[in-house]
Amino acid sequence: MQLILLSVFYCSAFFSLHDNENTIRKIEIDGYAQGTTYHITYYATDSLVTKMQVDSVLNKIDSSLSLYKPYSLINQFNNSTHGIIIDTHLMNVLKASLTTYKSTGGLFDITVEPLVEAWGFGAKKMAAMPDSNTIETIMNCIGSDNLVLKNNFLRKKKPCIKIDMNGIAQGYTVDVLANFLETYGIKNYIVEVGGELRVKGRKPNNEKMKIGIESPGDDEMEPEMIEQVIELDSGAITSSGNYRKFYESGGKKISHLIDPRTGYSIQNEMISVAVYAKDGITADAFDNALMVMGMDSALHFVEQRKNISAYIIYKKNDGTVADTASTGFYKLMHH
């Protein structure tokens, strides 16, 4: 989950605040959750939602889905032999995950947790790189078809099955926060968690919300540049990238994006993908899978679907960086 989506709202035009009751104010809430930061901006005449309320919502999600919290439900499931009774949050994310597992032909798979851990991208740090025998053994514990949901009991077919929802939890979280704001009658907002965004409505001057998409510099040392600015008045945008979370091993880049079919990290031309969808959980479910697919397959996959569109930054054969977008995404771009 890369923070490559920079909401441009921090620098949005400042408008005058009068004391009369009906002036729309810009209200901002920042904090930490899920091992990352969050930022909420909403426009209202009054502070309708407080940081304390937001943190309490986030705490509930974290105690369900976060691998960072030892007591979380997801960790209880991972440490169990047969499975556990799950809550609504875990249930919602699980159902979306299983649907995406099917629609991506297994490219999105929450049972990758043992692989993520083995390659050193998990909560625990690994001392050495896994060898091929280790990977082969772990592959017996990979595959979402090993998960069985009956009523609210999530069963695992083998004790070694462990799940990691980091690929989709932040997208789900922005949806939960967006719905929370809406229950308080807030209609104009931007919610961002770890770079994943959900937007609704407009600024007081009737401008759409502007979102900037960062692109990596030509080498990892260069600062990122804003590559594209898109304008939205509803929907979610999430991203996945290969240029922040990786390390070198024997001259080869090991990326945190692991192909669940092989057990190894992806080595393709993709640098980053931003996905637009009506909600965060949908966008977030697909961004990693598109990275694993590679450019041609990813574009083809997206064009076949009405519910998502994508913007892709990739390396050409000659090493230069280029970008492309699906038909739907071009429509969002600010010309």
First-last Cα distance:
27 Å
Q: Spans with pLDDT under 50 lasting ≥5 residues? A: 1-19
The helical percent reads 25-40%
Got a strand count? 16
Summarize the structure.
The chain is α+β, with helices and mostly antiparallel strands and about 325 residues long.
Keywords summarizing the entry:
single chain, 335 residues, alpha+beta, T-fold, 8-stranded antiparallel sheet, 3-stranded antiparallel sheet, 9 helices, 28% strand, globular, disordered N terminus
Description:
The chain has 335 residues and is of the alpha+beta class. The protein has a domain of 104 residues: ApbE-like superfamily (T-fold, Orthogonal Bundle), CATH 1.10.3980. It contains nine helices and 16 strands. The chain has an eight-stranded antiparallel beta sheet with strand order 2-3-7-8-11-14-15-16. Strands 1-9-10 form a three-stranded antiparallel beta sheet, with no helix packed on it. Helix 1 runs antiparallel to helix 6. It is globular, with a radius of gyration of 20 Å. It starts with a strand and ends in a 5-residue tail after the last helix. The N terminus is likely disordered.
